[in-house]
Task: structure prediction
Amino acid sequence: MQNNHWKDLLRDYGDKDLETKKSWYSPVADRYNRVRPRYSQEMIIRVIEVAQLPQKAKILELGCGPAIATLPFAKLGFFLVSLEPSEAAYHLAKQNCVEFANVEIKNLTFEEWEVPDVKFDAVLAATSWHWLSPETAYPKAYEAMKNNGSLILLWNTLPQPSYEIYLILKDIYQSIAPDIPLYASYQSAEEHQEIFEKFSKDILASGYFHQLVYENVNHEVTYSITDYLDLLSTLSAYRCSINYGKPLPCLNARFLSE
Result:
């Protein structure tokens, strides 16, 4: 992965127009809801500790998708206002959070949303911050927070099969999908850390936030090949149709949660 990966990523996603952002994941919303990796309870508890969130803190969530990160915070009693541009994902989020009166889902982009007078204890973006233009995201997130509020950025990084499977897939990618190099690379935890450290410097350079804490945890998820292909179809570089067949053997993919 190139050293300028995060800047390229933020530019490529953040610069998309609002209508594109609203519809980008709609065709694969059901698959996204079913197969995208979840955030572990261990990670959520650690986030709460680092951000020093008070009980029943009020959180603004940006790009909640089908509420993958929303639910663990809601189950702990936090109040969330969760914005989701995609209409399909918005309806899934509403269904998934139906039993939680402490969650309000809005079918809006962050750009469209108006900052209220009552501020939030934290702004949360779970695998979504790269969809926002830094010129808008940093000042508006800061404006939405109380004094000493926290910006919480979570990511599940790109799925990474074992090294042995990577060696097999590498040649396949090179022969039929050379334009998707990020998914055909193998990166160590040290390389991931280097990338996020550079991104951390960009956060601090914005001038809106300080006292940054960065942590990661490895976890593995076992997918059938059919489910793994469904997972790939929810990643932006693919966004193509998949032929479905009988259930196939399992792949073990590693994710680095940031």
